[in-house]
Amino acid sequence: MKLLLLVIKNQTVVLDSLYDAIAENADCDIRRLSSDEQSNLEKYFKRNIKTTEYDRIILFLRFKKEAQQIFFVKTIPNLVILEHDACQNYISGRYEGAFSKYYRQLPWVRVLVSGAVIARRLQEEGVDAVFVPKGYDQKILKNLNKPRDVELGFIGSLKSNAYSSRRAFLEQVAKKENIRIQRTAPGYEYLQALNRIRFFISADIGIDEYMIKNFEAMACGCVLFAFNQGEEENNALGFKDMENIVLYNSIEDFCFKLAILRKDSELADRIALNGQKLAEQRYSFSAIGQQIIQAIEPSLHQPLPFSPRKPFWLGLWARLFA
After folding, report:
1. Radius of gyration of the chain from Cα atoms?
2. What is the pLDDT of residues 96-138, one digit of tens each?
3. Do residues 87 and 209 make contact, with C-beta atoms less than 8 angstroms apart?
4. CATH class, 2-135+286-296 region
């Protein structure tokens, strides 16, 4: 399969290992588009791409820029869209309903989304949606088997309005427990920080899927405490409460399970090890790259034939002289 992958140049989250994993499983041409190039896809394609050379063309670009060019996007053959932010479609805010509106205009396009529930809901709306989860960069992140001197920790952003529920929950925890909340540089600094944390607290509340930090924390040997996204999502990911992850539904539930694991270090160690094994087996970028190829290999739906709209005056003329 000859594949063209268009991605964001200078992206905040470094996903080069994911792109490499995709390329390892297909004849892949990777192009990194600047902000200006994403804003004018028609111009970029005209100057740089012969669409007939590719069996699949994958867009993994800024949703806002891409959706504004729907009329050109409709002309791209063998199109697949990879999207990690489609959860915002069902969250009150700027993009609520925007993904549905966009994808419904592209019923022949396969859309890869990172939430099982999100995929199912989009399928019910007529979208050819497939669930491919987020993962972690196995080339950078791993368990270093060092002593963990931070009992409770979180690494990440709390500033955005999209993370208001996350921020509120962690503030609740901070009132009861000594929790370390920090930001780090990606790569080595992030690896070292994760490997110091015994219990990593994830609070993806109201998002309906598990963010990338969950898989990263598991891979680094943390005991992952994660807000429960529901049975459907957990079953799709292989998450089992108090076996390879610790799921909570409230601050009281969190505190109750934390107390259990503080008293039973062997259980905590077992959960951490099982979580690490699950992440390594199923959620490394190497594994996710294979899943992406498997998801795009089946035949795509064919675009609807173009049917130009008749001018208003022509219809009126026909009725007058019928």
Report:
1. 22
2. 999 999 999 999 999 999 999 999 999 999 999 999 999 999 9
3. yes
4. alpha beta
The per-residue pLDDT for range 219-269, each reduced to its tens digit, is 999 999 999 999 999 999 999 999 999 999 999 999 999 999 999 999 999
CA distances from 1 to 17, 22, 26, 187 (A): 20, 11, 6, 32
The DSSP element (H or E) to which 162 belongs, if any, is none
> Do the domains 150-283 and 2-135+286-296 match in fold?
yes
Q: 126-151: b or e for each residue (b if 16 or more CB lie within 10 Å)?
A: ebbbbbbbbbbbbebbbbeeeebebe
Pick the CATH number of 150-283 from 3.40.50.2000, 2.30.30.40, 3.10.20.310, 3.40.640.10: 3.40.50.2000
**pLDDT tens-digit readout, 166-224:** 889 999 999 999 999 999 999 999 999 999 999 999 988 888 899 999 999 999 999 99
Identity at 191, one-letter amino acid code: L
Taken as a whole, the chain contains a residue count of 322
Give the phi and the psi of residue 199 in degrees, each rounded to 5. Answer: -115, 110
- Quick one: 102 exposed, middle or buried, by C-beta within 10 A (0-12, 13-18, 19+)? buried
| pLDDT greater than 70 at residue 315 | no
